[in-house]
Amino acid sequence: MEKMKAMVLGNCAPIESNPLKLTEIDKHEIQRPNEILIQIEACGVCHSQLHGIEGDWKDIGIPPSLPTVPGHEVVGKVVQVGDNVTKFKVGDRAGITPLLEACKECQYCKEGKEYLCESSTITGESFKGGYTEYITVVEDFATKVPDTMKPEYAAPLFCAGITAYKAVKAAEPQSGKKIGIFGIGGVGHMAVQFAKVEDCKVIAFSRAQKHLEVAKRLGAIDAMTFSENQEEFLEQLKEKHGLLDAAIVFAPADIVTDTAVKSVKKGGLIVIATVGENPQFMAFEEKTIRGTLIGSTKDMEQVIKICDEKNLEVVSQAFPLEQANEVLKKLKDSEIEARAVLMP
Questions:
Q1: Helix or strand or coil: residue 43?
Q2: 35, β-bridge pairs
Q3: What is the chain's mean pLDDT, rounded?
Q4: pLDDT tens figures, 231-290
Q5: Cα 119 from chain centroid (whole Å)
Q6: Tell me: the pLDDT tens digits for 100-157?
Q7: Integer Cα distance of 4 and 54 in angstroms
Q8: What is the percent of the chain with per-residue pLDDT over 70, rounded to a whole number?
Q9: Which helix H or strand E contains 95, and what residues bound it?
């Protein structure tokens, strides 16, 4: 069997200990007639992957098994197609989201919400991850990528992009609506732009000055430094902008979620796109708290279409695959401006 190089996680451990090991594993092969084989051009480095690698999310079953090849936002070239494939041909470019496959038979799949499927297969939680050279996927769960999109631009769209798009949609955007985005990194900087496409007034919040500068450059009407001194932070927000119509939370910290809930006016909407404790809020304030998770294949097609037509910016830095540990350490230390991308 042919081999391919991969960064393999054998045991969860702090990223400082270099838990990802460069290894040769069996090259993936097409095993079903509706699969395609993709030669990976780039894989984005997601913050949620860092939590999985370090063992922060063991209590929710992530990663479900070890060893594993991480990486769940993948783009590459189709180099082989199964006998029954009609959506792709050899030479096409394709991308894969964290949803590698779903059953297509349950109520969620039939409702077009296949990302909620109870028996779904997640990219990067087995040997089918993106920190390697090849990957196979059923054609229905891959999305066409225009030849004009560079790999380092396209790859982050398949997690950061779709997560941002879906979260903004969940915030029920409309012209002039005042939306606060908490956490301006790989996902947040895309959300700023999707909200701007909907003509919303975006206020960005982050601890890191460079992230605030990115948000301002991408169209936020203001970018404010987040402070854990909640009373002071809320007072400053009220003085400058009043309470928000809606808030979207990408920062995985309970204090941020709690502050976001309090930043929104009565009857407003809070979208939580991260893992954390259940926030407390007064039912009599009639606020709506909504969770969100990536999106459907149709959502992904919309993300590609909007980014292509509106020329949205993807702030990314490219690194060799072998530097995965170092890149994740940079991400942990907030040294990545928005999204890092690994290229085999």
A1: strand
A2: 138
A3: 95
A4: 999 999 999 999 999 999 999 889 999 999 999 999 999 999 988 777 778 889 999 999
A5: 20
A6: 999 999 999 999 999 999 999 999 998 999 999 999 999 999 999 999 999 999 999 9
A7: 25
A8: 100
A9: strand 93-96
Please confirm whether the linkage preceding 63 is cis (ω < 30° from 0). Answer: yes
Where do we find the tokens 């590609």? 304
DSSP 340: E
Residue (of 183, 190, 222) closest to 306 by Cα position: 190
Alpha-carbon distance of 108 to 129, in angstroms, equals 24
User: Which has the closest alpha carbon to 4: 26, 29, 30?
Assistant: 26
Q: Tell me the three state secondary structure of residue 310.
A: helix
Whether 331 contacts 47, CB under 8 Å = yes
Reported in sequence order, the residue ranges of the chain that DSSP labels E, i.e. its strands, are 3-9, 20-26, 35-45, 74-81, 93-96, 99-101, 121-122, 134-138, 143-144, 178-182, 201-206, 222-225, 244-249, 264-272, 288-291, 316-320, 339-343
Q: Are 204 and 231 in contact (CB under 8 A)?
A: no
The residues, any chain, with a CB within 8 Å of residue 190's CB and separated by 6 or more, are 156, 157, 160, 161, 163, 164, 165, 312, 314
